[in-house]
Structure formats: C-alpha cells, structure tokens
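Demo today. Your pick:
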Amino acid sequence: MTAPQLVLLSGSLSQDSRTNRIARWCAGQCAARGATTSVFCGADLDFPFYRPDGAERTERETAFLDALADSDGVILVSPAYHGTVSGLLKNALDYVNELARDTRPYLDGRVIGCVSVALSEQGAGSTLTTLRTIGHALRGWPTPLGVALAGARASLDSEGGPADPVVHAQMATMLGQVLGMAKVSARRRERSARPVGATA
C-alpha cells in the first residue's frame, strides 16, 4: 500500500525553538508508523509576503507547494504571538492559494493536525482555534483533537516530545487521528493512479 505523505509546518524562526522541536518529533513519530514526512521549519518558510499576482515562484516556494499538493495530511505547529499564529506560518499558508486550480484545490480533503505552543493557556487556546479555522478555510479536515502546549505543560523531553504525560498522550491521540485519515487518502490516491481495468 502507498505510504501516507505528511507535511509538517513549524512557524518559528528560532532554530532550536520548542515549536520546531515538537514539529520534528511529530515527524519522527509519524515516520516510525509508516508515513513519509516532509518538514518545513522556520527558515524553510521564510518567503516574501504572498502576492496573488502570478509572479514566478522560487525553487523553495515551488518545493513547498509541490509537497502540499502531493500530501495526504498536514500538521501545523505554531507559537502563539500575541494570541494568534505567527506571521511566518500565516504567510506560508497564504501561498496555498497557488493550489486553487489543482486537482485537489487548496488543502481539499487533507487531514490537518493542529498544535499551538505558548506561555499562557489563553494564547495557546486562541492560537489553536485560529489554526483550526484556517484549516477549515483551506478545505481541510482538522482532527477532532488539537493540542495546546502552554506554560509548564509546554516543556519537552530530550527527544523533543512533550515531557508532561497528559500532553504526551494527547499528542499521540492526535497523531493517530492524522495517520488514520491520511491512510484513507493514500489508498484513494493509489486507486486513482491505477490503470483502468487493473486489479489490486
């Protein structure tokens, strides 16, 4: 069976930030369960402000859009900046407008896992809500469970995963939901790519 393809986006420019570390940890967890993962952290998403004027896209921008176009699922990880998602991540997601005329426009049909990282519960909650709202607007399907890492519960272990056992369990559940729905998408891709008349 075709392995599900997941794209993970982290909205922090700080190389060793908790946001980047948790995104890489999520990618490792998903890869260990059979998924193919592409991770875009910080500088990977440092694009010019999005302008829908048909400008020629750079190699980095094209690689980003190609990964999303081919994906079965997306995991969004954002720090809370003044109660909402980082400008870096929001701008990168604005580029998804370039997929408007794709076979699966925008993020249509993709499962979307959402994770917020903040100092306070309030910032984590509002950022998580915004991530889910953006996911819906891009025609994706946010998982039933989103995860907010706030305050002491945002601490990470040596592997980059949540140190708090409750948050760790929440992350495992959310990733399981992403993988389960992404596998369905991967099977659909496999069937659609199969020549007419071919059997499994």
About this structure: The radius of gyration is 16 Å.
